[in-house]
Every structure is written in C-alpha cells, then in structure tokens.
C-alpha cells in the first residue's frame, strides 16, 4: 500500500502544479477551483497482498463465523413475484415487459452479466433482445441502436452494458437513453432525484437497489449505522452511497486517493466493496461483526474451471468471513439480486406504459 500512496501523492502534486499553471495563464478565470471534469482522475487501485489467487483455498471454512447472505435464494423469491405479475399483466392486457440490451465488444465480465440477464428474463416471462456491436463501433452505431429501441413500443427498458470502450462518450450515450426506458437508473435525472431528499427517481440503479434489498431482507438495520462504500463509480459506488444516505446511514466513501482506507473501513458497521479489485478488502479492514456486501465480480484464470476462469470478489472472503457477522459470497451474492432488480425495473416500466396496476 505504501507504493500506492507514493504513486498517488506524486500524481496529486503534478495535478496541483498543472492547476497552478492554469490559474496563472488564464487571467479571465475568477475562481481558483478548476472545473470538475478536469479533475475527474481515474481510480487506479493496487490490489492487496492477497493476490495469489491460486493459494486461496477453502481451508478456513471450519473457522468461518459469518452468516452467508444467500443472494440466489433472495433473488429467486423476488423473481417469483415478478413472474406472477408478468403473467397477470399478460392475461389482462396481452402485453409482456420487454428489455433491450446493447452490448459493445467482448469483455468477459460483461458477457457474464448479459448472459445472466437474458436467462433471467426468459425465466420471468420477459421478452428480451440484444444488439451486439463490435469493439470498434462508432458512437452513431450505438445511438442508432438506442433510437431503434426507443421507437419500439414492445421495449420498455433499455440497458447499455457498461463499461463502454474508451473511444465512446459514455455520458453522451447514457444521456441519450429516454428517461422512461432507463431501467438501469443512470440517467442524470434519475441520479439527481436519488441524491435529493424528497425526490423519487423513476428507477433506482439496479446494483445499489439490490444491495439495500439484501440488507433489509437479512434483517440489517441501516438507519443510524456507519457505512463505508469502497469505490465511487457512477454504476455502483456513487449511487450506493446516495441510497444508503436516503436510508439514513452515515456514509463514507473510500477511493483510490483515500489515505488510510483500512482505518476508515474498520469503523464501519456496513461495508460495501465495489472497487473492482480482486481481494482488495482483507480481514484487517473490518471490525468484528461488520456486515459485508461484496459487489466485486472479478474473473481470474483457473484452468480447472469449465470456462477457464473463476469469479472472486473485491473482498478476501476466507479472511472476512472470520471477522464479519454476515457476508455475501461471490458468486451467488449481489449478482443474482442485481439481475432481479433489473427485471423489476423493467416490469414497473411496462406497467406505466400500459397503465396497468
């Protein structure tokens, strides 16, 4: 971690120097503070020493003290309710919810997510359609796919699988998704309404919504608790922190520039790990009895597995399960519930479109 802080400190110093140059060279600038987008540095994490994945075994299972939060079981319960509502809607109106997915490139983790979403749609009776675009596609190709789905009345939800290749303007594309079909909940108006008290977003982002549902269904009291969200992506970290605040938790965010992240994380009653770094969060990052929600889903090479890789989380499960009071596994934790939330958002969108209650 010392090397990480040294590297980050150097980057911050260089950035400060660049900001000073901007201030002295632009006489028209009234404020010393820069534009926010000019300081939107990428979070580059260094994985913990728990990175020799092949050496991590289940040898600690007999010492595990944490209750496993079974995301698959919870997702099945939610999906069962969705399936019943889809059937009721079809019988009453002749319509079923429709979900469109735009997939750019061949990222392995994205393929996993999309495969799971399409399978879940089929199980729930929701119609689905995929637009597969090449890695080097143009922005216009993505926008054209969006336009086609916007005009299709059988499509009630549109999902642009993130992340997109770097040559594409992610903000422009997400802003182009019509609000009433933004079942991912990433439209600025949805995010803004999530951030503001007294406002209700049309859709909540699926992973944060799933994280909170896991906590509530596991009997975890959120109000008044200290929560730490590790990672601040627009997809998970940021909206999760906002949603936890709406549930009256006291929230801190840990990111790649945070000093003493372990110390901050150890103060939390609830830890949500969403950095996208395998085994970043060690047992030493947790206080005894903490609740751990592991959003990470990281494929690591493993020739012994069916597809040549296995999935691990952002939390070093074998260590954390001996410290925490409850923890989500990877796979089988947050992932299935996230997919269930996507189905629910799509169902709610279809109900609005057809005035069905």
Please tell me about this protein's structure.
This protein has 357 residues and is α/β, with parallel strands linked by helices. The chain has a domain at 61-70 and 197-336: Rossmann fold (3-Layer(aba) Sandwich). 40% of the residues lie in helices and 13% in strands. The chain has eleven helices and eleven strands. The protein has helices spanning 2-25, 71-93, 108-124, 139-151, 170-176, 188-195, 206-217, 237-246, 261-265, 317-320, 334-353, and strands spanning 67-68, 98-104, 127-133, 157-160, 226-230, 250-254, 270-273, 291-294, 298-301, 309-312, 326-327. The strands form three sheets. It has a six-stranded parallel β-sheet. Strands 3-2-4 form a three-stranded parallel β-sheet, with helices on both faces. β9 (298-301) and β10 (309-312) form a beta hairpin. α3 crosses α11 and α7 (206-217) packs across α11.
Task: Offer a quick outline of the entry.
By secondary structure, this protein is α/β, with parallel strands linked by helices. Helices cover 40% and strands 13% of the residues. Homodimer.
Keywords summarizing the entry:
357 residues, alpha/beta, Rossmann fold, 6-stranded parallel β-sheet, 3-stranded parallel β-sheet, 11 helices, 11 strands, 40% helix
Q: Report the span from N to C terminus.
A: 53 Å
Q: Supply the number of helical segments.
A: 11
Q: Which value, in Å, is the CA radius of gyration?
A: 21 Å
CATH topology description of the domain at 61-70 and 197-336: Rossmann fold
Largest sheet: 6 strands, parallel
**How do the strands of the widest beta sheet line up side by side?**
1-11-8-7-5-6
Percent strand equals 5-15%
The global form is globular
């Amino acid at each position: 971690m010392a090397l990480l802080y040294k590297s980050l400190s150097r980057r911050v110093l260089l950035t400060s120097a660049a900001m000073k140059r901007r201030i002295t060279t632009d006489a028209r600038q009234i404020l010393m503070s820069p534009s926010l987008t000019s300081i939107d540095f990428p979070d580059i994490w260094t994985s913990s020493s728990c990175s020799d994945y092949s050496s991590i075994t289940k040898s600690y299972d007999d010492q595990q003290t944490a209750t496993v939060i079974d995301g698959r079981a919870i997702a099945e319960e939610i999906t069962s309710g969705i399936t019943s509502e889809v059937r009721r809607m079809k019988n009453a109106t002749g319509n079923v919810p429709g979900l469109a997915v735009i997939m750019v490139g061949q990222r392995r983790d994205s393929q996993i997510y999309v495969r799971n979403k399409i399978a879940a749609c089929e199980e729930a009776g929701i119609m689905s359609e995929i637009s597969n675009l090449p890695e080097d596609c143009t922005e216009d190709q993505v926008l054209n796919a969006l336009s086609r789905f916007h005009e299709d009345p059988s499509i009630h939800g549109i999902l642009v699988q993130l992340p997109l290749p770097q040559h594409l303007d992610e903000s422009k594309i997400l802003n182009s998704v019509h609000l009433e079909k933004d079942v991912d909940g990433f439209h600025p108006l949805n995010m803004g309404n999530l951030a503001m008290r007294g406002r209700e977003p049309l859709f909540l982002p699926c992973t944060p919504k799933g994280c909170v549902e896991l906590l509530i269904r596991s009997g975890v009291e959120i109000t008044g608790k200290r929560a730490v969200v590790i990672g601040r992506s627009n997809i998970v970290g940021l909206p999760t922190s906002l949603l936890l605040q709406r549930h009256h938790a006291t929230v801190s965010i840990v990111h790649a520039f945070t000093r003493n992240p372990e110390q901050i994380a150890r103060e939390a009653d609830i830890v949500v790990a969403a950095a996208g770094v395998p085994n970043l969060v060690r047992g030493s990052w947790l206080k005894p009895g903490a609740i751990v929600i592991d959003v990470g889903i990281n494929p690591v090479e493993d020739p012994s597995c069916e597809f040549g890789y296995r999935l691990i989380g952002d939390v070093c499960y074998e260590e954390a399960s001996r410290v925490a009071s409850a923890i989500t596994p990877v796979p089988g934790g947050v992932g299935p519930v996230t997919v269930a939330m996507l189905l629910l958002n799509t169902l709610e969108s279809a109900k609005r479109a057809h005035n069905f209650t």
